[in-house]
Amino acid sequence: MSPTIREDPTVPVLYLIACGAPPAAELLSHPEAVPGLQADGWTVCVLCTPSGERFLDPAAVSIATGYPVRVEQRQPGEPDVLPSPDAILVAPLTFNTVNKWALGISDTLALGILNESLGSGLPIAATVWAKEELQKHPAFDGHAQSLFEAGVRFIQPEDGDPRFPWGELRAAMAELLAA
């Protein structure tokens, strides 16, 4: 991640990484997602997996955040269009991305950023959004535990609540901002 000049260096930068699951469609429409995070004082930059891009309108997200949605790696020598992050939020985090991330696979921009960020010690919060059957796969628990032990803070919905926990994620990010 090569740093770029921030418009206001006193405003912390949050990379919101969206994977391919329905909650990614709520990034702008849910008041606790991008709008709430911005109201809390974050400069929000959205990156997503190739599957995650299908769930959102990159042009609308770009207008709302002031930064392009990044999906692909930049070309060698091409400047980074995003400022360096102060924290990472992975929302939603899919079964596929949990497993690849835990194994250190960097075959997408999002995974490359996640792997670098985990190694750099940046604060990272995430919410897994995967079918119960996938979460029962034998690889899942070990990989999620590995990420947890490496410092990823997992925020899960309240038991029985079918909604994505945007409010809980926003609160967790506000705690990071206050720290």
Instruction: Give the overall form.
Output: globular
- If you compute it from the alpha carbons, what radius of gyration comes out, rounded to the nearest whole angstrom? 15 Å
Order of helices and strands: EHEHHEHHEHHEH
Q: What topology, given as strand order, has the largest sheet?
A: 2-1-3-4-5
Summarize the main sheet. 5 strands, parallel
Instruction: Please bin the fraction of helical residues.
Output: 25-40%
Write down the CATH topology. Rossmann fold
Q: From the helix content, strand content and strand pairing, which structural class follows?
A: alpha/beta
Residue windows where pLDDT falls under 50 for at least 5 positions: 1-6
Average pLDDT reading:
92
Q: How many domains would you count in the coordinates? A: 1
Percent strand equals 15-25%
Report the count of strand segments: 5
Number of helices: 8
The CATH homologous superfamily name equals Flavin prenyltransferase-like
Cα distance, first to last residue?
24 Å
Second rung of CATH, namely the architecture: 3-Layer(aba) Sandwich
Tell me the name of the CATH class. Answer: Alpha Beta
